[in-house]
Amino acid sequence: MSECIFCDIIHGKIPCAKVYETKNTLAFLDIAPVNKGHTLVIPKKHYPTLFDLPSELGKELLEVMQKVGEALRKTVQAEGINLGMNNFKPAGQLVFHAHFHIIPRYENDGLSLWPQKKYNNNDEMLALAQKLANNI
Ligand code: AMP
Ligand code: ZN
């Protein structure tokens, strides 16, 4: 066993319920699904978070996520699809091998998005947008 459970899956050391693979990516079912069919899409190489992923992989990852999402609509009659990625512990990342969650959703499935806060006023919001822009 290596230190990374997803690398172990890639190398066939532990099993997974494989859905699809490409040269550089693997898609398999999440063992503890939010809804049945919840699929993880991962790069075959080990990169800990979004910020370590080479941007050249983006096209292939996006295509796989689209294919999996379409298959979920056909297979488990998903009425909606959430795409999610947790980066770093405070955001809920448990496995430090970058991965995307493709989650089938249904009307009235009991889940809701995160609670939303407010800016004090529009100026505060615009000033923050400008600060962010300055850091890009
Ligand atoms: P995250 O919290 O974003 O790091 O998500 C890690 C996900 O990996 C969780 O949703 C787990 O249920 C899932 N997971 C952990 N181990 C396995 C495994 N062996 N096979 C499939 N999914 C797994
Ligand atoms: Zn890994």
Automatic annotation (TrEMBL):
Entry protein name: Histidine triad (HIT) family protein
SUPFAM superfamilies the record matches: HIT-like
Molecular function via GO: catalytic activity
Lineage: Bacteria, Pseudomonadati, Thermodesulfobacteriota, Desulfovibrionia, Desulfovibrionales
Species annotation: Desulfonauticus submarinus
Active site (catalytic residues): H99 (tele-amp-histidine intermediate)
Top-level taxonomic group: Bacteria
GO-annotated biological processes: nucleotide metabolic process
Chain span(s) of sequence motif Histidine triad motif: 97-101
Xref: Pfam families: HIT (PF01230)
Domain HIT: 5-112
InterPro entries noted in UniProt: HINT, Histidine_triad_HIT, HIT-like, HIT-like_sf
